[in-house]
Amino acid sequence: MAEKKLTTLEYGLLGLVGMSPLTGYDVHKVFSTTPFGHFSSSPGAIYPALRRLAHIGLLEARLDTAKEARPRRIYSLTDSGEEALEAWLHQPVTREELIRGAGAPILRFALSAGRLTRDETLAYLETYQKVVAVYIEELYGYTEQTTSPENLYGSLALYHGIRSFESELEWTKWAATEIRRAGRSSRKPRPSR
Amino acid sequence: MAEKKLTTLEYGLLGLVGMSPLTGYDVHKVFSTTPFGHFSSSPGAIYPALRRLAHIGLLEARLDTAKEARPRRIYSLTDSGEEALEAWLHQPVTREELIRGAGAPILRFALSAGRLTRDETLAYLETYQKVVAVYIEELYGYTEQTTSPENLYGSLALYHGIRSFESELEWTKWAATEIRRAGRSSRKPRPSR
DNA sequence: TGAGACATGTAATCGGTTACATGATTCC
DNA sequence: GGAATCATGTAACCGATTACATGTCTCA
């Protein structure tokens, strides 16, 4: 079987198509009108990616021949696509994903709705949280080397990173409590401040 | 003249080489042992990029022939490289850069040390701040459409984005006050909490 | 009925990742 | 003096960006 690793965009497409069958243009619309994944909505990225996924059997294309001269492909998730997606959703967050900043950790979280159990998602958030905490410690380590008055801007930039990961850390905790709370009542989530 | 646009990596290299002449391996070390720019430290990215920059005249390579069989190139910034770097540093933050998340806004800030005046950097932070604020409003707009109990995870993911940009917004304000403060005294910057 | 927006892609280019290759240095 | 590690790259592949091409619908 030798599961090939896919790009973040491709997993995003699997997740999106997995919600409901879509055409390339539908995907384009989602990417360009919502903050979903902050992927590029360029057709030169989307269409080839959909084709690739269809080619390796993770998606299947149904030809809509309503307009003959310009038929369009409606993609839906195959069983093995479902499998690949779920395998990915079960991966814990890694340090590399966090640093790369391509948004993979949060994408997995968002796509886990309906595909992971509540407890699995909570466990995912827990590992997410740990990885972030470890990385924050690492960044603090640099502050001792780098913090000198001559290097003010460098220090400030470093604190930018630290703060942003601290905010991410708080989010993981908050999200977990919201999910737990939703299990007991059906109130809407509210930002904590 | 038609200044060609460079990649973020290339600007990072200009900035780094601009601090002191470096070899490809030096760059690799910086990228792999510090949080500078969170670029990939893969040689396949660094060496070709240095060559490209040298080829278009923004860097110049001096051959160090100390070891004959394996001479190495020490790169330094040329006048036109200096120009290109400063032109870039003078660009205000754009919405696209912010969303793309490649770290360009913070990289420009960090590299502005010694190349922009204090007031120019403060002005840069001001536009940075405004762009972030505008984007946060945009994201809040989505919460009204998207926030439904059935779409809990989607909402939570959206709040992840909002929080992280809010943290960025606070950083821009904090950094500006630190810079102003440093103008009056020479204390080290401290995180605000 | 012609202009513009909406829809559906393809092609060329190009930067980055992964993997490979080889030369020097250290150190056991 | 052989292995491991440091240093300095090259090559192949492949995905993404940019630009282009063409079909279809709306509506003044």
Q: SSE layout and pairings?
A:
The structure is a homodimer of 193-residue chains.
Chain A (H helix, E strand, L loop, with lengths): L7 H12 L4 H10 L9 H13 L3 E6 L7 E6 L1 H11 L5 H6 L3 H8 L6 H29 L5 H33 L9
Helix pairs in contact in A: 1-3, 1-4, 2-3, 7-8
Chain A binds a DNA duplex (28 and 28 nucleotides) through helix 2 and helix 3.
Structure overview:
- The structure is a homodimer of 193-residue chains.
- By secondary structure, chain A is mainly alpha-helical.
- Chain A has two domains: 8-89, Orthogonal Bundle (Arc Repressor Mutant, subunit A); 96-182.
- Helices cover 63% and strands 6% of the residues of chain A.
- Chain A has eight helices and two strands.
- The first copy, chain A, has helices spanning 8-19, 24-33, 43-55, 79-89, 95-100, 104-111, 118-146, 152-184, and strands at residues 59-64, 72-77.
- Chain A has a two-stranded antiparallel sheet with strand order 1-2.
- In chain A, helix 2 (24-33) packs across helix 3 (43-55).
- Chain A is globular.
